[in-house]
Structure formats: C-alpha cells, structure tokens
TrEMBL record:
It comes from Salipiger marinus. Keywords: Cell inner membrane, Cell membrane, Membrane, Transmembrane, Transmembrane helix, Transport. Gene3D superfamilies: MetI-like (1.10.3720.10). It holds the Pfam family BPD_transp_1. PROSITE patterns: ABC_TM1. This is Microcin C transport system permease protein. The keyword Membrane applies. SUPFAM superfamilies: MetI-like.
Amino acid sequence: MGAYILRRLLLIIPTLLGIMVVNFTLTQFVPGGPIEQIIAQIEGQGDVFGGFSGGAGDGGVSNYGMESDKYVGGRGLPPEFIESLEKEFGFDKPPLERFLTMIWNYMRLDFGESYFRSISVVDLVLEKMPVSISLGLWSTLIAYIVSIPLGIRKAVKDGSGFDTWTSGVIIVAYAIPGFLFAIVLLVLFAGGSFWQIFPLRGLTSDNWEALSWPMKIVDYLWHIALPVIASTISAFATLTLLTKNSFLDEIKKHYVMTARAKGLSESRVLYGHIFRNAMLIVIAGFPAVFIGVFFSGSLIIETIFSLDGLGRLGFEAAVARDYPVIFGTLFIFGLIGLVVGILSDLMYVLVDPRIDFEKREG
C-alpha cells in the first residue's frame, strides 16, 4: 500500500502542472486583462467590457499580450502610465517567464497578492473558507444522516408503496434547481410573503461578538439553516439510491442466504453482515462527496443568502481578471482535490482491509 500511495503522491506534480499550463494558456487569449480593468475604471466605464464596443476604426478587440496600443479606450492615457502598470503586474515579461516564475513561487507556497484587494491570496482564501466549509460540511453530514437510513429502508421495502412514493419525492427534489429552492425558502421563511423565521442574509448576526458561546452556536445554526437545506436538497437522491442499490446487491449474495439459514434474525443479518459490505462504497466516498459539495459551492446560493464564500470569491476574481486569486485558488483547490482522491482510497482500505490497490494495479 505504501508504494501505491507514493505513486499517487508523485502523480500529483504532473497533474497540477498540466492543470496550471492549460488554464494559464487559456487566459492569454481572453480579452480584458487587469490593466484594461484599471483603464476602464479610470475612464469611468465601470468595467472593461464597456471598452469592447469599438467600431471598425478601432481595429477590433485585441488581447493584453500584444503592444500597448491593444488597450481599447486607453489611448488617451500616457504610454508611460501603461508601461508602469505592465511592469507592476509583470506583463512586461514574456508569458513563459511569467508562468515559470509563478510555478516556482507556488512550489515555495508563495501565492502572491490580489491585484485589487491588497491582501495575500492565502489570507483571502482563509477569510472566505468558513462560509464554504459550513455549507459543505453541514450539507454532507445532513445528506448522509438522512439518506443512509432512508436508503436502507427502501432496500428492505423494495417494490413496496413506501419505496415508490419516497423515490418519487427524492427524484422531484433532485430535479429542482438549488437556487430555485433557495428562493422558495426565502419567500416562505425569511420575510418574503409568509413568515420571517430565519434571517435573510449573512452567517452571523451583527451583535455576534456580544453573544455568549451557547447563543453564538444558536445564532450560527439559525443563519446557516436555509442555505444548508438549499444546498442539500439535490444530494439526497444520489446518496439514497446509491445506498439502496448497494444493499440490494448484498442482500442477493450467498453469505446472506447462509446467515438466514442459520436462523439469525433479519435485524442481525442486515446490520451484522450486510451493513459493513454494503456501506463500503458509501462511507469511503465521504471525502469525495464533501469536497464535491465544498467546491461546487454554490455561487448562486451564496449570492442569494448574501454569504461571502469561495464561490463568490472565484466569480469576482474571474470577472475582475484578478489572476493571482484565480491561479492561486486553482492550484490550492486542485491540490486539495488530488489529496482527497488519495484519502478516498485510504478510506476504502480502512473500511475493508481486504482491498489491495497494489495487487489490482499489478
């Protein structure tokens, strides 16, 4: 197992490098770099996209990787100012040199500073992390707590009326977009047209610092309730049906019939023999499920509930062309995702020591 883990760890390096090469290359062809953003703001256009409507006389839109006349709308500014901006952001250097410098800095865990926020990328990610962790962790836990017992019950009652109507409910829930369900929750329970039971925005109240620890916990749960429900609703279907199908596969195996033939009770057969084997894929997949919810995040749900998390951070960085934030978070999240993949394999071995990935590879 040690050799397998070592190989997986070594594969992280070329995988991350490939991810960064592809994304860095793509940005070279995207119009509207950070310099154009600054020029647009200086000239009162609000954002860079206001400068892309030039007529035929403007020569069209060009990328920031060309000469200084590329900056649409910036031709009234002194060339020296443009050059100083290029030097400040490092765009006076060839793309390959900028990429190699960036990778060297990342190897030393130096992710740079945001172009527009005067804060390091690491500090910015740590600042937004609590919101995304809250959504990801609670959504995953609630999905498991509800879906596993429900999936087991559906497997035991396979083909019954209970199985039929619960399948209908979870499939309908899966079909409802998370953002639409979030809006419904706001309308019903957050001061819309009906009741104001939960707060409309934020992760904590304004008087958070003055609250006692028990009240801080209550206040936090009060704020996070609706966003977590909105994030979780579509996860029930996949996890419930996965649990049900896993149990159904195990129920049909010979060792189950042998256990029943020995006179064991149905409860003992279900939880003493079937449970461990059936739950292997469900439990071992917990890290991957959590990181999936954590990444997918819910830009829309964060926006609807006014939560300042990683989803909004990524979107705002992409719109503003804040490259240190874009590439830094991409590198960090890519690394986390690859490590979680290894942890998922270790979870399989922990749940069932009979699994040997080295023999399978051989």
